[in-house]
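User: Structure with zinc ion, tokens only please.
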Amino acid sequence: MLANDAPLPVLTPETTPFWTGGEDGALMIARCSACTRYVHPPQPICPHCLSREIAPVRVSGRGTVASFTVNHQRWLPDMRVPFVIALIELEEQPDIRITTNLVNQPIEAAAIGQRVRVLFERHEDIWLPLFEPDGETGE
Ligand SMILES: [Zn+2]
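Assistant:
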């Protein structure tokens, strides 16, 4: 869980690009080069075609809110509540969904279908992908 002050994710060879791409401002999602589908969470074998030809690629970082919940529970002593936990569908492939926090807007502004974009928050050697409202209008 990417909540404030929650334990950081553990880096593995598969997940490191996802958790550290933010250093370059890049949201890195694993993609199968055999069937061209994105795979998330990252894993060594493609669940669609069983290929091992999976490599991280940079995606736009834009997507929409598929669902969300407002957390009021203080799981840890220093946790700041409330905050929004959201499932974001990436525009590249709607079945790729990232569990994250929605930030930079009032809690009550969160909405299903809202257009959002990624930003990163550094914690030690991890760059957490968070999402904020996408300022572009007229889409
Ligand atoms: Zn595949």
